[in-house]
């Protein structure tokens, strides 16, 4: 029985892989909840601190990272494991293994580029799929910038580089610009899937074959993604 539970991590069954994503998302949620409780316990009294100030700031950062990049990512983006080309192949386990480095982002663009009948693809896909693509577009462009910024900070702490230190010729303001270059699109990363999901739910409840103003909604989400990234 124990071996069967272990083998689910190496399963090619898309349903079992979805269970793994669900479990990892819930597990990450409990970790984020624990960090949130530590933050609140530390704020209960100004005189009795549960953790030190340095650890408090670190806990706030870790709580945000866990909730966004683990809980939200696993529960929202561990989808489409049933899609054609993924069900009968080993693509799903491979994506599961490289999920933390953004492996799920590249499949969307590959599927879009591989669409033979593009007009037919546009008129048939659900709104949620479009929201998924636009969200991946934002993450694909913004996450590498955040990784580069964190790497520059790490080099400054460990190796004494002066990228953001004015005393060494760096610029402290540029860190804020680079940081918000990534974090501002994150707002629309969370909003666009919700917009598209509501559109599909309304279509299903009204028993319609397609959403009223389908192309307009798609273009609206596209403009939201573009303008949100530029601003």
UniProtKB/TrEMBL annotation:
InterPro entries: Cyt_c_oxase-like_su1_dom, Cyt_c_oxase-like_su1_sf, Cyt_C_Oxase_1. Keywords: Copper, Electron transport, Heme, Iron, Membrane, Metal-binding, Mitochondrion, Mitochondrion inner membrane, Respiratory chain, Transmembrane, Transmembrane helix, Transport. This is Cytochrome c oxidase subunit 1. Pathway: Energy metabolism; oxidative phosphorylation. GO terms for molecular function: cytochrome-c oxidase activity; heme binding; metal ion binding. It comes from the Eukaryota. One of its GO terms (biological process) is oxidative phosphorylation. Component of the cytochrome c oxidase, the last enzyme in the mitochondrial electron transport chain which drives oxidative phosphorylation. The respiratory chain contains 3 multisubunit complexes succinate dehydrogenase (complex II, CII), ubiquinol-cytochrome c oxidoreductase (cytochrome b-c1 complex, complex III, CIII) and cytochrome c oxidase (complex IV, CIV), that cooperate to transfer electrons derived from NADH and succinate to molecular oxygen, creating an electrochemical gradient over the inner membrane that drives transmembrane transport and the ATP synthase. Belongs to the heme-copper respiratory oxidase family. The keyword Protein biosynthesis does not apply.
